[in-house]
Amino acid sequence: MPKKIPIRQCVACREHREKPQLARIVRTPDGRVVYDGRGKIPGRGAYICRSVACLEKAVRSRALSRALEAEVGEELLAGLRRQMEEESRDG
Asked: What is the mean pLDDT of residues 50-78?
């Protein structure tokens, strides 16, 4: 039997996608907000499409901060933007 792939919803565009297609941002138990590339860090997670457009929408609408119940730092956002731009160039 094939392995089922979990489905998650992007906090910005609200589209449902397979978990590996989304980026996970997590608020750790100690209150830090970090990018979770492997999807294994414990804490409150929020998923977002791997596109700069969805990231910008999530920041503008404060959907990411609301989902995490924490402020998302500009340093983390800048790193995510860079990574998403690189991924879109690489194809």
From this structure: 94
Taking a C-beta distance cutoff of 8 angstroms, is the pair 50, 23 a contact? yes
Distance CA 20, CA 7 (A): 9
Q: With a threshold of 0.90, does the pTM exceed it?
A: no
DSSP for the chain reads -PPPPPEEE-TTT--EEEGGGEEEEEE-TTS-EEEESSS---SEEEEEESSHHHHHHHHHTTHHHHHHTSPPPHHHHHHHHHHHHHHHHH-
Instruction: Please report, for the chain, the start and end positions of each structural domain, with discontinuous segments joined by +.
Output: 7-90
Please, what CATH class does the domain formed by 7-90 belong to? Answer: alpha beta
